[in-house]
Amino acid sequence: MTIEESFYIGYVSKTRGLKGEVQLFFEFEDYDDLELEIIFLEVNKKLVPYFVDQIKLHNNSTAYATFEDVDHIDKAQALVRKKMYLPNDKMPERDPDDFRYTDLVGYLVIDEEHGELGEIIDVQEMPQQFIATVDMDGKEMMFPLSEDLILGIDQEEEIIEVELPEGLVDLYKE
Fold first, then answer.
1. DSSP character at residue 5
2. Backbone phi, then psi, for 93, in 5-degree steps?
3. Which terminus, N or C, of the chain has the lesser number of Cβ atoms within 10 Å?
């Protein structure tokens, strides 16, 4: 299996104890919906399958896991910081009505005053809110995805209409 045939779910963050247990950190939002019998780790730009013996998921995007044939801290240490993948066919189905701010990547941003600003190239979750990054003629403009600023979202046309605070767009145009 290649990286193109899979999707990224997180990485091995550290070892735990002496018997080969590792802590996994999930960057995949719905990690509790994943089938985790086999996890593929990226080793030397190749995906290597690891069969999960035991796994205990936690609420903070982490899990403790043991893999078959990884029964000592030295074997587990070699897995730390390795990226984790699953095959594309294991991607959980989402309800079409389950729309998230991260789905806005690729949407065109139209400001009420300034018109078309550009396409959203990234959405990051910060402790208090989500932040959108827009490619505005080669410059990256960032703004909070706040209900106060969003006038409307057209999912079919992939357009988000906003009313950004006065002066924000001008800061990026200079």
1. G
2. -75, 140
3. C
Beta bridge partners of 82: none
40 close to 29: Cβ distance less than 8 angstroms: no
In sequence order, what are the residues at sequence separation of 6 or more whose Cβ sits closer than 8 angstroms to the Cβ of residue 48? 40, 41, 42
Cα angle 164, 165, 167 (rounded to 5 degrees) comes to 110
* Tokens encoding 158: 């992939």
Q: Is 48 helix (H, G, I), strand (E, B) or coil?
A: strand
Give tens-digit pLDDT for 96-154: 777 888 889 999 999 999 999 999 999 988 888 899 999 998 899 999 999 999 999 99
Q: How far is CA 18 from CA 4, 73, 78, in A?
A: 34, 5, 13
pTM across the whole model:
0.63
The Cα 84–Cα 3 span in angstroms is 10
- Give the separation between CA 12 and CA 14, rounded to whole angstroms: 6
Query: Helix, strand, or coil here: 74?
Result: helix
